[in-house]
Amino acid sequence: MKKLISVLLMVAALVVTGCYCATQAQAQKQAPKQPRKVALQSYSLRAFTLEEALNKVKGLGLDGIECFPGQRLSDKYPKAKVGPSLNAEERAYMKKLLKDANLKMISFGVTGASNEAEIEKICQFAKEMGAERVLTESPVYWIPVWNKYCKKYGLTMCLHHHATNSSNQYWDAEVMKKYVSGYSNVRANPDPGHWGRAGRDLVKSLKTLEGLIASVHMKDEMRFNDINNKCVPLGEGVLDIKGVLAELDRQGYDGYFVIEYEADWQDNVGKIKKCIDYLRKN
């Protein structure tokens, strides 16, 4: 009888320990990845040169910058625009601007190309500038080419989406999942703000893309299911931003949260700061 009791106690202890370990593992996976890596999509400051934009965000506590193609580089080079068309002197100046701002260019985009040679030039430029990702909404037939050159240059192509008024259906998470699956250097770059504009379920869409997300754009909106929407600071709109963060934490996402503030173009640095603070605290 004593032996039986001892065996039962041992089994019970193992069950309790197993449950505890499982609970701990689940809690660790769902715990916020603090401190979150927070970056800014420079399109938020498209009204300014990259040099002016970097000066405006100094001291905001950003971890990186995502540069978009076509932004004017600096008044010093009035015809120069960020992208592979920059010459050696202009590229050196861009690197200096990033270094002086103490910000890493984490990714480049949203960009596109009309042929294979352009795709390679974009990847070369992104790599030279220190980026790890290239964002695009390129047509489906270019995805294998992006994968080829991103693999060559050690990058990840992140498929981006806008809302239902775009020229593709990447806003549908099932469609995006279909096209990013099966490639070594292609992942998803979901934008919950555009999902909200398209009337999509944000958390459900993130669940669909589980294991495929390499970058996230962050924005909040005044209204749901409205293409003609306006950004507001994170947590001040109608979108379930806390649900988005909780789901990404559950998935173990440890990439950048890239703020893209598409409103108040001439004076939005204070609102960008609110977004940064929100991501730091939630």
| CATH fold node name | TIM Barrel
User: Based on the structure given, which CATH architecture is correct?
Assistant: Alpha-Beta Barrel
What percentage of amino acids are in beta strands?
Answer: 15-25%
Spatially, the strands of the biggest sheet line up as 8-7-6-5-2-1-12-9
**CA-based shape:** globular
Unreliable spans are 11-23
Give a description of the structure.
The model is unreliable at 11-23 (pLDDT under 50). The chain has helices at residues 2-30, 50-57, 88-100, 116-128, 143-153, 173-180, 192-197, 202-208, 241-251, 269-281; strands spanning 37-41, 64-67, 72-74, 77-81, 104-111, 133-136, 156-160, 186-189, 216-218, 220-221, 231-232, 256-259. It has one domain: Divalent-metal-dependent TIM barrel enzymes (TIM Barrel), CATH 3.20.20. By secondary structure, the chain is an alpha/beta fold. It has an eight-stranded parallel beta sheet with strand order 8-7-6-5-2-1-12-9, with helices on one face. Strands 3-4 form a two-stranded antiparallel sheet. α4 packs parallel to α5 and α8 packs parallel to α9. β7 (156-160), α6 and β8 (186-189) form a beta-alpha-beta unit.
